[in-house]
Write a structure and sequence with these properties.
The protein is an all-alpha fold. The protein has helices spanning 12-39, 43-48, 59-67, 70-101, 107-116, 122-136, 142-146, 153-164, 168-176, 181-192, 194-209, 213-218, 227-231, 242-262, 264-273, and strands at 2-5, 8-11. The protein has a two-stranded antiparallel ribbon with strand order 1-2.
Length: 278
């Protein structure tokens, strides 16, 4: 069924789909809009539930930044997130290649058992992992925030499915030319899988940047704590300074939003293709 709007023919079904998607997009954006508006309010406006601030109070950002060593928190988070992401991509790529392109006894069984670990809630392993961290002497270190997250069954599965889609003829030709598995991975597989690898890197970086509970448990010094733990300082017994908390949250997520827009095309491509092949 079609109808005309300002002389333009529009398909009714398509118009309904676009309307639903638009409403969904607006609902998704509302929390961010509320966060930004709240960051410019006074404490009284937050307490009374005023939606629109009477004026833009930029001083909330200055107060929030100076209330805690956010400069140090940013440096800690950048270091931990970058290191974790680099090791995660390396480990996931090697493991995914082994499961996708190499033949060894029990490969599929091991892979299924490996995937089965995804069914275990993270809360179940948190206490054993913490005890291991304390036994190794890693408490209050960057190592405790990095090492437990350099391998992930989900990301290995994601890359494995993509690696399996690469034609077998390319590997046979590379072997005939004397190319080893490492050579084939880094010279052929990795360049052909940029979208999938970038997806893993992006998701891993966001997960590391947003980490809160584990760093809160394994650290107690501001010198090594990430930025998400720093946001907790605005929640005190006397009451939460919501306007300052939202201001801090705004400049906390700004780098992630900027990074997403830089790699949006490759990230979307990786999401659409990874895990759907093979």
């Amino acid at each position: 069924m079609r109808f005309r709007v300002f002389g333009v023919r529009i398909d009714l079904v398509r118009a309904i789909i676009y309307l639903i998607l638009t409403v969904g997009a607006l609902l998704s954006l509302f929390p961010f809009v509320w966060m930004l508006l709240t960051s410019f309010k006074s404490y009284g406006e937050v307490a009374t539930g005023t939606f629109w601030p009477s004026k833009l109070r930029w001083e909330n950002y200055v107060i929030a930044w100076n209330s805690q060593p956010f400069g140090r928190y940013f440096l800690n988070t950048i270091f931990v997130a970058t290191t974790t992401t680099s090791l995660l991509v390396a480990v996931s790529s090697l493991a995914a290649y082994a499961f996708a392109r190499m033949e060894f006894v029990g490969r599929d069984t091991v892979f299924m058992l490996f995937l089965a670990t995804m069914m275990i809630p993270g809360e179940v392993t948190m206490i054993p992992n913490f005890l291991i961290i304390r036994r190794l002497g890693w408490y209050n270190t960057y190592t405790a925030q990095i090492v437990p997250f350099i391998a992930s069954p989900f990301y290995i599965f994601l890359l494995r499915q993509f690696f399996r889609s690469i034609p077998r003829e390319l590997q046979d030709a590379a072997i005939l030319d004397g190319c080893s598995h490492f050579c084939f991975l880094f010279r052929i597989v990795a360049p052909l899988s940029k979208a999938a690898i970038l997806t893993v890197a992006m998701l891993g970086f966001i997960g590391s940047w947003d980490a809160f509970l584990w760093p809160l448990i394994v650290t107690s010094k501001p010198e090594v704590r990430p930025i998400q733990v720093g946001l907790r300082s605005f929640v005190v017994e006397s009451g939460t300074q919501t306007q300052q908390l939202m201001a801090a949250a705004a400049f906390t997520i700004a780098p992630i939003i900027a990074l997403y827009f830089l790699v949006q095309k490759q990230f979307t491509e990786g999401i659409m293709t990874s895990g759907l092949k093979g």
